[in-house]
């Protein structure tokens, strides 16, 4: 007597289609399409207005015109003479790029130690990383300024208005969130790879650089981009901690916009063109690291 065993293979495409069907059941397809179109319009509306206003005349923009009545492409050329946009972009790229690199390197090291090792105060540090996110940055402006001023008087070195003071300030506020992102990501990495490397005689530093870092690129990219954007979009701390030589692009735009309030017709075209120029590095950053962002933001969601 023989027994016949039938093995049924699961088609991955069928399972994937079933997964989409479950999503469609939660939200009907027409409603899903309408929601996506609405979100795209909400995003494209302000961006298209900035684009059209940057090539329009100042009088037309002041009157509320949406479509350009006359193409003024010279706004993208004259804005470099109206405001120190080049210096602001260089300072922002220098400071924010350094903050992103250092923050990502420190965050992945700290997160690996917090996840893989057990020591006194480990839970307190993890809770502190979450607690620091609830402190508004506005409340820290005066203490940070007083701290750097006291440090300058004690060490007899300039602090306010230097690049490194802004770098330290941004790194302080970006490091807790970046570290928590890496903690969530490293928790999902298999321990067996690290244990196999240690059995081959690898040290902790070698495990970190050869095993953890190559597997953590999506999380590292998310942590670095968050740190970069926090410094790039900041106006409050940069307006206090910088001077004319270390001024960032966000502060340069703020000062340029404030100077136009006293004029008869503000230079709307140049202000919009300057805003679009400052947005280009961020857009390029997202386009280059898009595939890493998707994996880093969804890490830890499925076990």
TrEMBL record:
| Keywords linked to the UniProt accession | Cell membrane, Membrane, Transmembrane, Transmembrane helix, Transport
One Pfam family name is BPD_transp_1
According to its UniProt entry, this protein's organism is: Microbacterium resistens
Q: What is the lineage of its organism?
A: Bacteria, Bacillati, Actinomycetota, Actinomycetes, Micrococcales
SUPFAM superfamilies, alphabetically?
A: MetI-like
> How is the protein disposed in the membrane?
Multi-pass membrane protein
Q: What is this protein called?
A: Carbohydrate ABC transporter permease
Gene3D superfamilies the record matches: MetI-like (1.10.3720.10)
Q: Give the principal location in a single coarse category.
A: membrane
Q: What is the annotated localization of this protein? A: Cell membrane
Instruction: Please give the family membership noted in the entry.
Output: Belongs to the binding-protein-dependent transport system permease family.
TM segment ranges: 31-52, 89-115, 135-155, 167-186, 207-229, 267-289
Report the leader peptide range.
none
Question: Which residue windows are coiled coil?
Answer: none
In this protein, which residues make up the domain named ABC transmembrane type-1? 89-289
